[in-house]
Amino acid sequence: xxxxxxxxxxxxxxxxxxxALLFEIERRYRxxxxxxxxxxxxxxxxxxxRTLIRHNKKLAYVKLNKSNPxxxxxxxxxxx
Length: 80
What we know:
This protein has one domain (about 1-75): RRM (RNA recognition motif) domain (Alpha-Beta Plaits, 2-Layer Sandwich). About 40% of the residues lie in helices and about 35% in strands. It has helices at about 10-20, 30-40, 70-75, and strands spanning about 1-5, 20-25, 45-55, 55-65. The protein has a four-stranded antiparallel sheet with strand order 1-2-4-3.
């Protein structure tokens, strides 16, 4: 379902400022499915999921709960 994490400058800035991660996902999945997958895969609590379709790719902005720092998940993924 989650194809890959996005590691652009904007995505790294979002990790620090908004406690959010950016993923490229398959287009058929809904926000609730994305939330469940991220919570199950990384063992974190998700507050909000926003999606965007751009250039035939679906991106998911996943905002984590304050008790779960996004920098820890990004480090596990090798983004930082």
